[in-house]
Amino acid sequence: MRGRWIRWTLPLALAAFVGVGVAMAATKATGSSGATVKTAASSKYGTVLVAANGMTLYRFTPDKKGVSTCTGKCAKFWPPLVLKGTAKETAGSGASSALLGEVMLANGAAQVTYAGYPLYYYAGDKKPGDVAGEGVEKVWYVVNPKGALVKHAVAAAKTTSTTSGGAAWG
Hints:
Number of domains: 1
Largest sheet: 3 strands, mixed
Mean pLDDT: 81
Shape: globular
């Protein structure tokens, strides 16, 4: 009897634990002021868009301009950047106010767009600067300040040095 109980309750407890973790991550991601889009430097991807809380923002390639298609289970892992109450989207440092906009979701919330495309957080990002969602399923990418997808790491800057090495110049 005890073995049967463990076989049934252990998977349920594990599922509940994972569900709570995803919900907490989504709440953390959307719990900020959420209306400001700015830029931050990523050592791997260059300058990328982030929200007011410093969390990285992503685009979903199946989305079309002005249309958010990540709903249901998708939105649990990729929460939309939504406006709270009567707040308006604002451009912070490095972002262009001309590229900001919004799209209405089925639930009546306004999702922030950049260059016409909806913006999302990734529940797997735990702290500002994380970019764990980059390239997921080859449909999720970070966004640069011009609104373009960043699909590849930026090349590290090459450093060159010059030394005379004792060569004779003449």
